[in-house]
Amino acid sequence: MNVLLDSHLLLWLVSMSDRLPRKARLIIEEPANRLSFSAASIWEIAIKSRSGRDDVLIDPHLMRRVLIDNGFNELVVTSDHALRVTTIPQLHGDPFDHILLAQALVEDMTLLTSDRTLARYPGPIMNV
């Protein structure tokens, strides 16, 4: 399975947080799965880190390096992804969630999330 992890799961994984759901860990540890992170997630985490948010306890530069060093594929944001956002219903206003879902749709990936609101969107989303 081609899996795109959302920003929170990436944060919890890299920081070795107990908040990472067991189901997510099992999917991440499955050798047959191809794991990816979005450049948009790094952007989101960089913004939150710079603003001093206390839920972002890892440097985004280090986070990116750890993900790449551990075999994650980096998914860049393309104009195809940006245009696909126009087909996504507006259940909430988080542009980062919208671009992650658009990327999953365009790239035929499963978006892995623990965000209940994001999981309500139609598409290839797995709530863990």
CATH superfamily, by name, is 5'-nuclease
CATH architecture: 3-Layer(aba) Sandwich
Please outline the major beta sheet.
5 strands, parallel
Give the total of beta strands: 5
Tell me the span between the first and last alpha carbons.
15 Å
Going across the major beta sheet, what is the strand order?
3-2-1-4-5
CATH topology annotation: Rossmann fold
What is the structural class? alpha/beta
- How much of the sequence lies in strands comes to 5-15%
Q: What is the helix fraction of residues, given as a range? A: 40-55%
- Point out poorly predicted stretches: none
Total tally of structural domains: 1
Q: Which series of helices and strands comes N to C?
A: EHHEHHEHHEHE
Report the mean per-residue pLDDT as an integer.
95
- How would you describe the shape? globular
CATH class: Alpha Beta
How many alpha or pi helices? 7
Return Rg in Å. Answer: 14 Å
Write the layout of secondary structure elements.
Layout: E1 2-5, H1 7-14, H2 22-29, E2 34-38, H3 39-50, H4 60-69, E3 73-75, H5 79-84, H6 95-107, E4 110-113, H7 116-119, E5 125-127
Parallel strand pairs: 1-2, 1-4, 2-3, 4-5
Helix pairs in contact: 3-4
Summarize this structure as a short list of keywords or feature phrases:
alpha/beta; globular; Rossmann fold; single chain; 5-stranded parallel beta sheet; 128 residues
